[in-house]
């Protein structure tokens, strides 16, 4: 996934990948299942923190990830989809590469 082109574009809000999770009942009685992206703490923060410029700090993004309830799903998604940019599941691209190379 490339760095968002606008501050309003948050790749973690995309709805293409769904996991079972909490749901919300709408006023009409319809039940809407929330995806892990919609439950992620990063969906409520500035996406720029998760896509720092080269040499930029990843500390704030990783701090958010460490307290996020969907961190494992996020990391699983990043590994399965070979995400090459940004902080996903609390890990940088380099850290995810190392994790993938480790023997199972």
UniProtKB/TrEMBL annotation:
This is Unannotated protein. Keywords: 4Fe-4S, Disulfide bond, DNA-binding, Iron, Iron-sulfur, Metal-binding, Transcription, Transcription regulation. Its cofactor is [4Fe-4S] cluster. It comes from freshwater metagenome. Belongs to the WhiB family. It holds the Pfam family Whib. GO terms for molecular function: 4 iron, 4 sulfur cluster binding; DNA binding; metal ion binding; protein-disulfide reductase [NAD(P)H] activity. Residues 41-98 form the 4Fe-4S Wbl-type domain. Residues 1-25 are annotated as: Disordered. GO terms for biological process: cell redox homeostasis; negative regulation of DNA-templated transcription.
